[in-house]
Amino acid sequence: MSKTWSFDSEQTQGYTRVRQAFISEFLDAIRGEVNLQSAVDVGCGVGYFSKFLSDRGLRVVAIDGREENANEGQRRFPEISFLTRDVEDPSLPDIGVFDLVLCVGLLYHLENPFRAIRSLHALTGKVLIVESMCAPGSDPSLQLLDEYQDDNQGLTYVAFYPTESCLIKMAYRAGFPFVYGFKKLPDHPAFQNSKTRHKERVMLVATKAPLETANLQVLREPSREWDIWAAPPNRLTSTLRRVKSSIRGK
Asked: Is the distance from CB of 180 to CB of 211 less than 8 angstroms?
């Protein structure tokens, strides 16, 4: 019996098309600013985004941490080079530098997402596109979560899910001088806040040179106070502080 791949499910395919359409629009928008000839798809699964990039005329290398995924991608798309490599392996950048690095649906599956982003920075010649699930919260932090066992999950089935601000901060600290968010994200519930759920996913762009694309906005590196152990002041303490400040002012 042939294997059933989660990447081929109707739900996943629909979401893949949404992201591909959005990324295609972005790549069209920056065509006049940056010349992209080569690309690497990191965390490629069975190669749907690799094929998408190849169809746009890019020379593509596809990477996945699961050998069975890479082998299946090679079977489906023989014109693309598929490699089995772990994005958390510090030697990953040895494969080269690419004009475009695409990392879709991967970072939140990892035990060491910051190590991975450092590798992505080393691979990036011009532009990195990252799409990831994001934990709720405004602080640059990570949530350690258990994952179910499937071919589209992490290698160890336990992973750190970053907040959006954590992704931004990691990109800056990895060495990217420019980190951008999209003014308008894909038209899909996963990218939107609702009355009952926080936004689940985010898409960011990090570059080695500035971009002027209309839908992009520069994101500043988030800061975090060092003393995270300080208890928040209660209402009485806050009132006393205001009174003391007022008295000193007079």
From this structure: yes
